[in-house]
Design a protein that fits this description.
Number of strands: 20
Largest sheet: 6 strands, parallel
Bound molecules: coenzyme A
Strand order of the largest sheet: 1-4-7-10-13-16
Helix content: 10-25%
Order of helices and strands: HEEEEEEEEEEEEEEEEEEEE
Mean pLDDT: 94
């Protein structure tokens, strides 16, 4: 019995060591990519960074980035957390105290701002762009349609449920909750629960 416990705790210790190491490598990568980050940045696992020169990525104090399914309580992670900017005008801000979990954030040409103390549950995708124009079909793969890109703003204290997709131009008001598996394509006011595809307001908390 004792040996079993010993084995269990050695594996846990080894895993913790690996998380710490990959977190440190990610931080080094943040520095190499000129990403500004505040104090107490806690990274568990490796983060995919693809940062266009002169774009801006700011990570405020006390942000946690989980990028390993083992550390993710509610779900598995489909991918590591990914932060990507695709042009000099792209900008991503992660507010103080916010937590990401295998989150994919891609700013093609506009701003994506996540407020303070937000909980972004596993596998959420946030983007400012459709990346293609819907019409005419022959132009979809050749014309980028950057003029259709729009800022995304998530207010302070929002809770975004797992497997949610937040599309271009969406503003989510502070304190709001987005139910798991939602697709948010329109603004959501503050202090409410919204869910579904497309996300609809279900309840106003106050
Ligand atoms: C958002 C959530 C917390 C709301 O829980 P709740 O306050 O108990 O809400 P209820 O279950 O009372 O649901 C209220 C209404 O919203 C609907 N609803 C709730 N979540 C929904 C969802 N994800 N998609 C669609 N509809 C949803 C319910 O069907 C219900 O509709 P009705 O009034 O017509 O019956 C919960 O539904 C949820 O999504 N949990 C997952 C959270 C998560 O991702 N956690 C990961 C760890 S951070």
């Amino acid at each position: 019995m004792k040996i079993q416990y010993l084995k269990y705790f050695s594996i846990i210790t080894l895993q913790e060591g690996i998380f710490t190491l990959t977190g440190l490598i990610s931080k080094l990568n943040f520095k190499l990519k000129s990403i500004k980050y505040g104090t107490q940045l806690n990274i568990i696992g490796g983060v995919i960074l693809d940062i266009y020169p002169e774009s801006r990525v700011i990570i405020e104090d006390n942000v946690t980035i989980i990028s390993n399914a083992k550390r993710c309580s509610a779900s598995t992670l489909y991918s590591k957390t990914k932060i990507k900017t695709l042009s000099p005008s792209s900008a991503i801000v992660i507010g103080e105290g916010t937590g990401l979990n295998g989150t994919s954030i891609t700013s093609r040409s506009k701003k994506i701002i996540i407020g303070k103390n937000c909980m972004i549950a596993p596998n959420t995708i946030i983007t400012d762009s459709d990346f293609h124009i819907p019409w005419p079909p022959e132009n979809r793969s050749v014309y980028p349609g950057c003029e259709r890109d729009v800022d995304v703003i998530i207010g302070n204290n929002c809770w975004i449920g797992m497997n949610t997709i937040i599309l271009k131009g969406v503003n989510i008001g502070e304190n709001s909750v987005i139910g798991a598996g939602s697709i948010v394509n329109k603004d959501i006011p503050p202090n409410c629960l919204a869910a579904g595809n497309p996300a609809q307001i279900i309840k106003q908390y106050k």
